[in-house]
Amino acid sequence: MEDNKSVDNPITDHIPGNPKLLVIDDDANFLFGISRLLTKADFTVIAATDGVTGIAKAQSECPDLILMDINMPKMTGFQVKKALEIDPVTQFIPVVFLTALNDDASMLAGLSLAEDYITKPVDSTILAARIKSILRRVKTGMRRAIIESDKSFSFERFKQWAYSVEMMDERSVGHTTRVANLAVTLAKSMGYIDDSFLENMYKGSFLHDIGKLAIPDKVLNKPGPLSAEEWELMRQHPLVASHMLSSVPILKNATEIPLMHHERWDGKGYPNHLAGEQIPISVRIFTIVDVYDALTSKRPYKEAISEENSLQIIRSLAGKQFDPAAVEHFATHFQEIISESEKLHQQYVQSEAG
Ligand SMILES: [Fe+2]
Fold it and tell me: What region, left, alpha or beta, does residue 101 occupy, with left being phi > 0 and alpha being psi -120 to 50 degrees?
């Protein structure tokens, strides 16, 4: 279920005339003004007023450089930069922070992440000169990075990132490999035997929480309840995952589960409040095994719940959180599904160790 084929690289495909800049700033007036000035300075300018849109435009437009504010709603500039770094398409695009924040801590944090940190207000001639200087400076490094990135589009590379999510999210070590095997086993048992369906399901299950790479550790591992603002951030992780994976040819068909694994049968999930059969079958299967594995796993704040009791909880959520028909199948064929999945998981662990 792995694919190491080389793929098109949108970065190398882009041969710029005028350097293309993506400017991300929530202040529409500032954005309009700076875009006009930079256009006059011979840049091609694309604009976005928030980080989520900015990430999408970075992926589709492959700008030569991103000029970005820090304090923005939805995602801060720092979070956008982190999300860009974990996407093979955008990870080598140089970023310059352009912000009113002029305290030492912000500047140091910004400079540790980006190519440059420029404080507002800034003279447009100086800004254009600094951007051109950065573009010259990164050209050699970019070329080297692009050559190296050609090797990074494999599913193996993404698996390493999924493991790093597990390490960040201390509650779920081993979760991704178990749920990937269990999801595929349940799907097969329900009669879904098409190879490409199962392969995409396996990859999507493995990478379901990869968008958490963009969530700050202090939110991800907060011991108490999350604030409304922190929840808003957490709810971004399926969208971040979808943006990341949909631009990678070998993974673009595996985005269903990462994007929709928090949707619910009754429509009360997120991010798109899908309901019933609007949710693809791969996702309806995955959500059952995802919760089942969480219930049967020991976590710092709870003991593992027995298989029998976990199955009871899953059954009680049929028609609410889960597809009732898929739950019924899982419950009816429970023992054979669990033992087949454990066999697969052991084979996987041995192959990784070998
Ligand atoms: Fe998630």
Answer: beta
Query: How far, in Å, is the centroid of ligand 1 from the Cα of 235?
Result: 8
Give me the residue label for tokens 């392969």.
199
d(CA 152, CA 173): 24
Question: Across 77-91, 118-132, 225-239, 283-297, which has the greatest mean pLDDT?
Answer: 283-297
Tell me how far apart the terminal alpha carbons of the chain are, to the nearest angstrom. 17
- Which residue in the list 81, 159, 203, 212 is annotated as catalytic? 212
Hey, is 124 helix, strand or coil? helix
**H-type alpha helices, the chain:** 10-13, 28-40, 51-61, 77-85, 104-113, 124-149, 155-168, 175-189, 195-206, 217-220, 228-234, 237-246, 256-260, 281-296, 307-316, 324-332, 334-353
Express each pLDDT in 39-49 by its tens digit: 998 898 999 99
Question: Whole-angstrom Cα distance, residue 335 to residue 301?
Answer: 28
Please check whether residues 139 and 164 belong to one and the same domain. no
Residue 322 DSSP code: B
How many angstroms separate the alpha carbon of residue 118 from the centre of ligand 1? 35
Whether residue 71 is predicted with pLDDT greater than 70 in this model: the reply is: yes
Residue 113: give the domain boundaries: 10-151
Q: CATH number for the domain including 43? A: 3.40.50.2300
Q: Ligand 1 center to residue 253 CA distance, Å?
A: 18
5 is catalytic: no
pLDDT single digits (tens) 299-344: 766 789 999 999 999 999 999 999 999 999 999 999 999 999 988 8
Let me know whether 193 and 332 are in one domain. yes
How many angstroms separate the alpha carbon of residue 239 from the centre of ligand 1? 10
- Cis status, amide bond into 121, omega within 30 of 0: yes
pLDDT of residue 192: 96
Determine the distance separating the centroid of ligand 1 and the alpha carbon of 208, expressed in angstroms.
6
pLDDT tens digits, residue range 284-296?
A: 999 999 999 999 9
Mean pLDDT of 127-152: 63
Last residue of a domain, one of 114, 130, 151: 151
How far does residue 237's CA lie from ligand 1's centre (Å)? 7
Angstrom CA distances, 181 to 85, 109, 174, 204, 205, stand at 28, 40, 11, 11, 9
